Amino acid sequence: MQAEALLDVRNLRKSYPISTGAFTKSERRTVAVDEISFALERGETLGIVGESGCGKTTLARMLLRLIEPDSGELRFRGQNWLGARGADLRALRRRMQMVFQDPVASLNPRMRVGAIIGEPLAVHEPDLSRSKRRDRVAEILEAVGLSAESLDRYPHEFSGGQRQRIGIARALILRPELVIADEPVSALDVSVGAQILELLARLQREFSLTLILISHSLPVVAQLATRVAVMQSGRIVEIGAAGHVLGAPRHPYTKSLIAAVPQIPA
Question: What tens digit of pLDDT does each residue of 233-243 get?
Answer without folding.
Answer: 999 999 999 99
